[in-house]
UniProtKB/TrEMBL annotation:
Flavoprotein found in the keyword field: no
Organism: Mus caroli
Family to which the UniProt record says this protein belongs: Belongs to the G-protein coupled receptor 1 family.
InterPro entries xrefs: GPCR_Rhodpsn (IPR000276), GPCR_Rhodpsn_7TM (IPR017452), Olfact_rcpt (IPR000725), Olfactory_GPCR (IPR050516)
One Gene Ontology CC term in the entry: plasma membrane
Protein name: Olfactory receptor
């Protein structure tokens, strides 16, 4: 589909990373492989934190919610790009684009909120252990997760509603592999994108508040850990906190670089790499990162993979 034809159509053309069809197929296959690996990893985390009775604490409850969000976030962008690349079209309808904006924004904000709740959970567990069961009771954890999903739905609705007011004209070409808001704003015919900028400013302030909450929690955590006399106790704390801190830092740094830097008419390879860093890699790597230093998770994964029922299913399906 040519750029000239796009001016008369309501949808958009996702340019992705290359105009070369052979490279598009290779990239689509790499994205598909990443999607399958990320989906499998998150599905394993969801399964073991649901079935294993030893992984029913609030920390693993929130980790399960994070894996659900990661799996959902991957499913919003990657399959559409793989399908359009293999079909050699790159075309995405206006409705599909708005749905991508809604779900991607909702899941991204929900992930930010979940990471904040997880840092607070670790703060209470380490700094206020005698009050942990009261503060992080099952009922309060359920309400926290409900608030996370509700806030994600509100943020997605605000972004999508403000985007619907934008009039697009000219060559509706998006130099990205999904409907990215900064790229869409460049296609606006006039100054009718101030609503989106207002929502972006509000969400940025809220994200900064979450970041400050996470920074406060970890400041208190490390202050408490350094006063621990037991090296084993410090190691146990670090095994649960360092993976979370790495995930938070990676998610925030790459997302900030992608959204705060000015968008260019001809995106560089670095711009496209940043888009992968905050959309595809975090949800794919999170299961691995959380499993590397967490002995309970590693034991539960081995128990799942080596269980008789799991082995029978592998033999049945020929894996």
């Amino acid at each position: 589909m040519t750029a000239r034809n796009m001016t008369t159509m309501s949808g958009f053309l996702l340019m992705g990373f290359s105009d070369n069809h052979e490279l598009q197929i290779l990239q689509a296959l790499l994205f598909l492989l990443t999607y399958l690996l990320g989906s499998a990893g998150n599905f394993i985390i969801i399964t073991i934190t649901t079935l294993d009775p030893q992984l029913q604490s609030p920390m693993y409850y929130f980790l399960k919610q994070l894996s659900i969000l990661d799996l959902s976030s991957l499913s919003v962008t990657v399959p559409q790009y793989v399908d359009s690349s293999l079909a050699r079209s790159g075309y995405i309808t206006y409705c599909q684009c708005m749905l991508q904006i809604f779900f991607f924004t909702a899941f991204a904000w929900s992930e930010m909120a979940t990471l904040t709740v997880m840092s607070y959970d670790r703060y209470v567990a380490i700094c206020l252990p005698l009050h942990y069961e009261v503060i992080m009771s099952p009922r309060k954890c359920t309400w926290a997760v409900a608030a996370v999903w509700l806030s994600g739905g509100i943020s997605g609705t605000l972004y999508t509603a403000s985007t619907l007011y934008i009039r697009f004209c000219g060559d509706k070409i998006i130099h990205q592999f999904f409907c990215d808001i900064p790229q869409l704003l460049k296609l606006s015919c006039s100054n009718d994108y101030f609503g989106v900028l207002g929502v972006s400013t509000f969400m940025s302030v809220m994200a900064f508040a979450c970041f400050m909450g996470i920074a406060f929690s970890y400041g208190q955590i490390f202050s408490t850990v350094l006063r621990m006399p037991s090296a084993e106790g410090r190691s146990k704390v670090f095994s649960t906190c360092l993976p979370h801190l790495f995930v938070v830092s990676f998610f925030l740094s790459t997302g900030s670089c992608a959204y705060l830097k000015p968008t260019s008419d001809s995106p560089t390879a670095l711009d496209l790499m940043f888009s992968i860093f905050y959309t595809v890699l975090p949800p794919t790597l999170n299961p691995v990162i959380y499993s590397l230093r967490n002995e309970s998770l590693k034991r539960a994964i081995k128990k799942l993979l080596l269980s008789e029922e799991f082995v029978r299913k592998k033999c049945l399906f020929g894996f």
